[in-house]
Amino acid sequence: xxxxxxxxxxxxxxxxxxSMGCLSAIFLLLQKAVLRKGDREYLAELDKTNKYRSYFxxxxxxxxxxxxxxxxxxxxxxxxxxxxxxxxxxxxxxxRALRDGGRxxxxxxxxxxxxxxxxxxxxxxxxxxVLPQADVAIISLEFAAEQTAPVLRERGIWRVVTVDEVLxxxxxxxx
Length: 175
Known about the structure:
Helices cover 53% and strands 14% of the residues. With 175 residues, it is of the alpha/beta class. It has two domains: 4-44; 61-174, Rossmann fold (3-Layer(aba) Sandwich), CATH 3.40.50.720.
């Protein structure tokens, strides 16, 4: 038996819901919203975990290269101009290794750019700025390569490598 009040609720909640179904539907929508928020938080944590796993893998490779008596600079010709994408901790280590190894570190690119990295004395560009020509770009984080490499190639830097590719090539040369 449906009263006038229930019909009003039914109309506001939709044709396919009964009056008690209306409350159930609202509960389900709220539950889905919470799950979506939870999924976003879970995915954010998963991304963070993958990022740290990538850091660890890169630093482990770099240590193996170092133990083989090789240097990051061994991969690049002295005459090549090099851009580094990503100025987090690993990007700064790459820049320092290239600079200390006498390579032509031309500039860096980072989403949260400052005009110049004072500790390294190099210009840091935002990704959407006009970039000077460089012979090669090295991406500091493996997980960013899939999105970043095509953008750099569109910007005229045809040779794009990740730091992991460089380190693995150096380890391959050692064996």
